[in-house]
Each structure stands twice: as structure tokens, then as C-alpha cells.
Amino acid sequence: MPDLLLELFSEEIPARMQAKAADDLRKLVTDKLVAEGLVYEGAKAFVTPRRLALTVHGIPARQPDLKEERKGPRVGGPDAAVQGFLKATGLKSLDEATIQRDPKKGDFYVALMEKPGRAAIDVIAEILPVIIRTFPWPKQMRWGERSAKPGALTWVRPLHSIVATFGLETEETDVVKFDVAGIEAGQMTRGHRFMAPAEFSVRRFEDYEAKLEAAKVVLDPQRRRDIILAEAKNLAFAQGFELVEDQVLLDEVSGLVEWPVVLMGSFDEDFLSIPGEVIRATIRNNQKCFVVRDPKTGKLANKFILTANIEASDGGKAIVAGNERVIRARLSDAKFFYETDLKTKLEDRLPKFEQIVFHEKLGTQAERIARIERLAAELAPLVGADVEKTKCAARLAKVDLLTEVVGEFPEVQGLMGKYYALAQGEDASVAAAIEDHYKPQGPNDRVPTDPVSIAVALADKIDILTGFWAIDEKPTGSKDPFALRRAALGVIRLLVDNGIRLRLLQAFAKAAKLNNGNDLLSFFADRLKVQLRDQGARHDLVDAVFALEGQDDLLMVVRRVEALGKFLDTDNGKNLLAGTKRASNILAIEEKKDKRKFDGAPDAALYRLDEEKALATAIDQVKGEAETAVAKEDFAAAMSAMAKLRPAVDAFFDKVKVNDDDAKVRENRLKLLNEIRAATRAVADFSKIQD
User: Fold this and answer.
1) How far apart are CA 409 and CA 331, in angstroms?
2) What is the C-alpha separation between 613 and 629, in angstroms, rounded?
3) Backbone angle region of 328, left / alpha / beta, with phi > 0 → left and psi within -120 to 50 → alpha
4) Taking the model in full, what pTM does it have?
5) Contacts from 94-103 at CB under 8 Å and sequence distance 24+?
6) Separation CA 27–CA 24 (nearest Å)
């Protein structure tokens, strides 16, 4: 079956837009093909700084013929309805329609319509101009003489040419004929801007890719990434160094070049007195270059690796020299900022926070710092942290936001605070807490383990959560401008990963005056579900545990969920769940019917069958054992106790008729069912668990 080749050649496509643009092109074209009945075999999109390309293979040469039945008016119906039917279906008279018999509703006319499929190339010629004109670039521009006219084409940068060919692999391809804003589709493209700017013709994807390669263009973004990474590693290794890998930078750099050429430059050793992270941020942000380190010491070397887009006649000497000049100037600025920052003690910067508003309803940054310090001091004993060190760390944690280096490179906030704290002689745990109080910032981020860091990190996150909850600024849908979901997940990981017991509702009360701390606790439950789901646990078990009164100790919730999950994987667990749900369902029906609850202790004198007595005995035994185990926080033992209930529950439902004709016996048996429900609530609310 035929293949489609499409290339949209333009001026520079910003690197940050490239991956999405390639995916959008693939999806827009293939979705439209399928909608037109042209089901393809495979598709792949490519992008370079100057072109978007797509190959779709295995497209049918024609659309399938369509046959459709169109129901019309009743036989003998109004003439207006008949005429409308004929016009809609294209029939000349009712003689061309068939009559469908319906004994109940009466006979009616049916038109059998056939629509022959069109050639795929004609369909594609209609599809592509619309896609090009409506392409979802986040930012677009108009250009040239036509730009002032209504309906002028907009594109990310001026669009120069379109390649569109269609045909079988073994035959000559045809050009898909269409034009967009005066740009006619053809089969001419061009290679590298400087090394191979001449035009050349292409037929299908295989020769397109090969000719581009010969014209100094690596079409596949992944290949460009692989080339850059491999050559950078080899170049560093040859000089006795190790590349500091950076996936985000690698993705960006591969989007800036069509023909990657990796080179190494250097800078003055004097700049190594600056913290390595600042050197890296300077070189990375300003010149999109990688840094290298000494594999023996782990410290940065005074070298950098750049990616050029050309094979220069001088071997890249001028390119390297130009980058060295810029990096020298930027590192000089960074060194000046760093040395200037060191002249002022962190605590001497604190008064400036009194003039900086954190949030109009939550006061200044100084007030926020004071709240964090107070809460951190209260949390310190609970996590085994020194109170004075914790207060000091909390007081200084945000100060580096006012420094020159962080003003220039916001990504090193916290880290620079640690360096400045160590430079002025602060305790190592205080300095570490200044860096770590932002952590963890994501599912893969490191979780602090030092007690002082834990206390300050918890205080920072709980303060921001309770503060915004108190002023009713909560996340909605996909909007979370204050990163409250991330803060909640951070609290969860700090507590669970470090095995820390903390009653959240008490912590909320200490942090802020909330009208409803349980609402924030529910938010934590939702975040915990996300966390456990990512680890393979069932979210409904979190609901089952949180449904119990007073479950605000996340470590205990997680342990209870883990034990419950293991229990429900056993036959005893599955069968007990089924029995408990059966009891709950019967109770729900009968309570609704009688408009009352069947709580209170059953009357042993009303037991008529051995199975009733056995169940009552089992409940008394199990309830006591489970509550004792839960009190000892031995949730595995609590689940083992619950398992003993299963045989008695099974026998009860097998032999006992709950809705006995005797009203007192019926009521007593319903109370016994309620006892099952109450007993299992020692470990979880089984009604929240999905089958």
C-alpha cells in the first residue's frame, strides 16, 4: 500500500516547541486519515530546527465504498415529507426507493445510497492544507506581502516550502497537489543552512532521510541526542574527565542543531573557587554547554563541552574561542555576585523580608518565616531534632532569596543558602536544612533524613498548606498555582520514608486556625492515594482506612493499608470481605425499609441456631483480639484475628435466615450483622473496599 511523505520547511523552530509539534503533526494527520476511512499501518514524525516531517506508511490507495440506508417517511405520508426525503437522498422518484414492511408502525420508504470511495491522494490533498492552516503552535507569526490580508497564513516562523509525496514503495511517487498561501506542495527540499543549502528532490521517506544525511542533516531527534551524548562522553574521557550529564540540556541542545559537532573549551581555574553548581548554572543557562568533572574527586574541571551546528574549516577553534569569551565574562559576573554575597551575613538580610509581601492575605515574607520558625520548633522534639538548631535553620532558610547569585540563578536557591551558612560558621545540620527544606520537590527527589532538615521541611510545607487552606485558596482541577499538591506529597514522603509519627490535625491546629482541618486531611488522603497507586497499592484501601475516626497519622495509615492489602490477597480476606459486604447490603436495605438503625448489642436469649451463637462468640473473640493488636500497632496480627471470623460468617449466611417471621428474632439477627460490620471497623471500613 502507498506511503505518504510530508515535510514543512521553515525558519528556526524553537527547541522547546519541537517535540510537541512533531507529535501534533502525527496525530492531526493520522486522526484525519482514519476519520476518512483511510486506516494506515504506521506513522512517525521527525523534527529539526528547520523542518517538521512525517511519514505514514500502509495507506489504502482508495477510500472504501460506503453503503448507507436512509429511512424515509411512511407510505402515504405528506407530500412535503416525501419531497424532502427525495431531495436529501438524491432519488429522482419514489420508484428508486424500497418499501420496508412494519406491521406495527406501518410501511415506510428506505433509500439505499452508495457513495464510491475517492482516491486517497485526493483526500490527502484536502486534509493537509486545513491541518497546516490550523496547526496549534503556541506562538505564531505572519510575514511578507500577504500578511496584511485576511486569512493570511500564520506559522511559528516563515514557512518556505512543503514536500508532499504519495505512492507505492516500488513505483514512482506522485506529488500531493495543493497550496497554502501561495506555497505549492512539491518534492524539493534543502539540506544544512550553511554546509548544503542547495535544493534537491525527494520521492519517499527512505531517500528523503538518506539525502538529508548526505546534506548534513540528521533528521531523527533521538539520533542527534545519541550523537551528542556519545561524543561528549568520549571527548571528556579522552581528556581524563567525566561528563556531567543533563537530560534537559541534552534535549534542548539537540533541538538547536541539525548536524551536531561536539567541541571542548576551557575557562580560568580561578573560577573554580565559585560553587560548582553556580559554574554549571552559568555555563548551562548562558551558553547551553555541558560541564565536566574529575572522576576521582567529583569536583568540576575548568572545561566545558559545546555543541556546534557546523563542521568548521578550522576544526572549531573560532567557535570554541567565542564561547570561551562569553563564558569568561559570565563567570566573572557570577564570581563577583558570590563574593559580594559573602560580605553580608544571612541574618543581616532578614529585615528586608518585612517589606516583601508573601501573599496579600497571608502577610509578609517575614511573617511567614516567623510562622515556620514557631512550627518547626514545636515539631523538632517529635522528629528528634535539636530545637535551637531547628529554629536557626528555619529563620535563615529563605534568606538566600535576597542574594545576588540566587537573583541571577533561581534554581540554586537553598543550595546557596547552605554555602553561605557554612561560610559564616553555622552548624552543618543548620546549613543542610537550609538546602533541604524545599525537598522533596517531586516523586524522584531526595527525601531529607537529618532531623533538623525534616523539622524545617515539614514546617515549611504545612505552613503553606494550612495558610492557603485558611484563606480558601485550594487547587482546582489542573490549576495549582501555589504547588499545594507537591507540598502535601512532600509531607507524606517526609513522614512515611523516615518512619515519623505525626498527628496531622494537631499540626494543622498549631500552624494556622482552620475552620475545617478535616478538609485538608481529605486532601492529604487524595495525595496519599496517588502516592500509593504509583507504588502499586489500591487507592480504595486508603479510603477504607481514612473512613475510620481519627486517622491522621500517615505512617500508621500506610502500615494499615499495607497489612489490609496483604490480607485481602488471601482467600480468608476475600471471603470475609464478601461476607461483610453482604451483611452491610442487607443492613442498608432493612434500615431503609424500617427507617432506623439496628445498632446496640444483640440479645443472646434470642439466638435459636448454633450458627448464630457461634458467630456471636467469634465476633466477641475477634473484636477483642483485633482491638488489642491495633492498639499495639500490629496490623498484621489484627488481620490474622479478622481471618478467624470468616468460618462463622460463612456458616451464618449458609444456615440462618436473617429476615425471620418473628420480628424480635429478625431484629436480633440484624443487630448481629451490625456486629460483623462493627468488628471489622477495628481495622478498616470494609464498605469502602471495592470487590
Assistant:
1) 12
2) 24
3) alpha
4) 0.81
5) 97/72, 99/75, 100/71
6) 5
State which of 76, 94, 115 marks the end of a domain.
115
How many C-beta atoms lie closer than 10 Å to residue 684's C-beta?
30
What does the DSSP assignment read for 268-287?
-GGGGGS-HHHHHHHHHHHH
Cell of 230: 556519545
- Category of 388 on φ-ψ map: left (φ > 0), alpha (ψ -120 to 50) or beta: alpha
Domain of residue 575 covers: 570-688
Q: Are 615 and 647 in contact (CB under 8 A)?
A: no
Tell me the H-state helices in 512-605.
517-534, 539-546, 554-568, 571-594
> How many domains in the chain?
5
Cell triple for residue 678? 462493627
Residue ranges of the alpha helices (H) in 355-482? 365-383, 387-396, 404-408, 415-423, 428-436, 451-470
The pLDDT tens digits for 3-16 are 999 999 999 999 99
Cis preceding linkage at 260, omega within 30? no
C-alpha cell at 180: 497554502
Condensed to tens digits (0 to 9), the pLDDT of residues 151-198 reads 889 999 999 999 999 998 778 899 999 999 999 999 999 999 999 999
Q: Mark whether 27 and 172 lie in a shared domain.
A: yes
- Final residue of a structural domain among 508, 543, 565: 565
Calculate the CA 618 to chain-centre distance: 47
Helix, strand or coil, per DSSP, at residue 71? strand
End-to-end alpha-carbon separation of the chain, Å?
Answer: 48
